[in-house]
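User: My instructor asked us to take a sequence, write out its structure as tokens, and then describe one feature of it. I'm not sure where to start. Here is the sequence I was given:
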Amino acid sequence: MLAAPDELLERAARRQAPKQPASGGCLISVIIPAHNEDGYLGETLAALQCQTYPCFEVVVVANGCQDNTVAVARGRCHRLVALSRKNLGRARNLGARLARGALLVFLDADTLLEPAALARMAAEFSETAAAGTVKGRPDKSRLAYRLIYALKNSVHRWGLHPGSSGVMLCWKEQFMRCGGFDEGLEVRENSELLRRLTQFGSYKYLGDITATTSMRRYEQRGVGRVTWLWCRLWFQSLLGDLHQKHYEPVR
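Assistant: Let's start with the prediction itself. The structure tokens for your sequence are:
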């Protein structure tokens, strides 16, 4: 179920309205859910301000924050929403409802897009594609991290598993038609939505677009422990329901 507007505490459009797309282009809505992300969100928003594609808006949905996330976002996005409770799916769904763009880009609050990313998305994400992601890159050069993302990118590139690397693309009309994110899921919610979206078209991996994402979970929890967690959740998803599984935030 999509997020209810009665949980809206604050909505603020402080930046100039996005430019309307020229003929043949589309307005892109970048939706950033943020839970206690004041240490990362500023850099993510700064990277968006460097985009070469002019026809986009940024929607930040702070959810259950107890830090300065809202203050960091205020004045640096086109629309700011604060929800009283933490729920990633609800935050993304509400952001999608408020979005004015035809193309939705769900961006993690600790993930940086290169300057030409949105321009390439607008050019390469065709109407035959229903969902997609980009090439992921770790923000640390440790060999283990590079190997993890080499494997992850290969899996996405060859369509072995439709996943995401801190970035997920889809068309708003199709997102709304399939019901958006399952708000009861805390783990593997991206894969579950991507599976439903592919009823409308193909899954597309945009390998010439790079997103640099934080490796903080691996840094704090350890490579072996996090890798085992992902493998275990993948196996459990094949056998049963993940609605009772919880995802521990790392900040």
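For the description part of your assignment, you could build on this observation: The radius of gyration is 17 Å. Try explaining in your own words what that tells you about the chain.
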